[in-house]
Amino acid sequence: MKSVLVKSLSDIQVENICFDAPIKNKFGSYISNAYLKENNEKKEIYFQTDKIISLDGIISNEKRSFIEIEFNNENVDLYDFISSLEEHCIMETHKQSNLWFNQKFPLEVVDDFFKSSIKPARSNKLPSIKFKIPISKKKITAQIYNQKRQLVNYKDVDKNSNVKLVIKFEGLKFLKQQCFCELFVLQLKYYDPNLEKNNSIGYILQDSDNEEDTYNIPKPLPSELDILLNTENQVQENENIIKCQEEKIILQEDSENTIKGTLENNVEEHNIINQQIENIDLNNIESVIQLTSEEKEEIQHEISNSKLKDFEENLREKEKEYLTALNEYKMLKTNQKKNIKNNDDLLLYEDAQKALGI
Fold it and tell me: What is the CATH number assigned to the segment(s) 3-195?
């Protein structure tokens, strides 16, 4: 059983191609099947072209279908391969003519009735070749793909478009006064210019149904045209952002200096208060504060009852409370009286007034 072998042009040595004896088909012509012999196995011959240009796309009707390729400097290898293949076919027909047809054909005779697949250059046109595309039940049977490996209709293949071909070399076909190579397109890859302009494949990430996006999806990169159109606006926007940032820095520095000065003043006043408390002379308490008559009587009573020690401790605590209240009152009076912000400040202010008897 024959197996398929697809190779590049450089991997096929045309001199190693063999042929079976011609067999008559149902149309009355004779076909000599071609094959490569590897490991005692006959392998059908398929070769793939590089990217080449189709002159008129795919021409198709109910009877025949083909694609014409023009030879140029970029596909010289294909031209050389077809030329070498045809030369090999001529030589093999000459050598095998006695075995195949019971008659020895001179080389000149074989060369005369061999029809080349290559159409020679004429006037301003380069040489070209037509590759047959098989048809069954009035429809093309060859598979046609785009560069995304999607099947497309033969009508989508435009004129002067890039294509790649997988071609089967069937063998030699003999008519009464003619012989030629049978070359069929098995598969075709069409490079759709519209797909080449847009290489995006879209969003293909598979998200779960209960997934919550808590992050910001980055915007797509702008095109060159978007960059040119938005450059002027972007520059102005950047300048405004820089200006706002500079003003924010200045305000922040002023705020930090204000807070720093306030803290330094509070620390200084706190140190003064502590120094005042430490310097209190309990033996001469009346020189520090003015006692009411009731307080004097209470002091005399405690002294007379030998409670001088307890009195001194209580007096020290009362003095501390007094000085604390006095300090809080001064601070509230000078700094916060005009701007009392909440109930706590108001209560503190009133407590200080009561403690000082104001």
Answer: 2.40.50
Write out the chain's pLDDT in tens, 358 residues: 455 667 899 999 999 999 999 999 888 899 999 999 888 888 999 999 999 999 999 999 878 899 999 998 889 999 999 999 999 999 999 999 999 999 999 999 999 999 999 999 888 889 999 999 999 888 899 999 999 999 999 999 999 999 999 999 999 999 988 999 999 999 999 999 888 766 556 556 665 555 544 444 444 444 444 444 454 455 455 566 656 666 665 655 555 565 556 555 655 665 665 565 455 454 554 444 556 677 667 666 665 665 556 666 777 777 777 777 777 767 766 665 555 445 555 666 566 666 566 6
Residues of the chain with CATH 2.40.50: 3-195
Cα 75 to Cα 53: distance, rounded to the nearest angstrom: 9
Q: What values do phi and psi take at 30, rounded to 5?
A: -115, 140
First vs last Cα of the chain: how many Å apart? Answer: 120
pTM: 0.54
Our CA angle for 341, 357, 280, nearest 5°, is 100
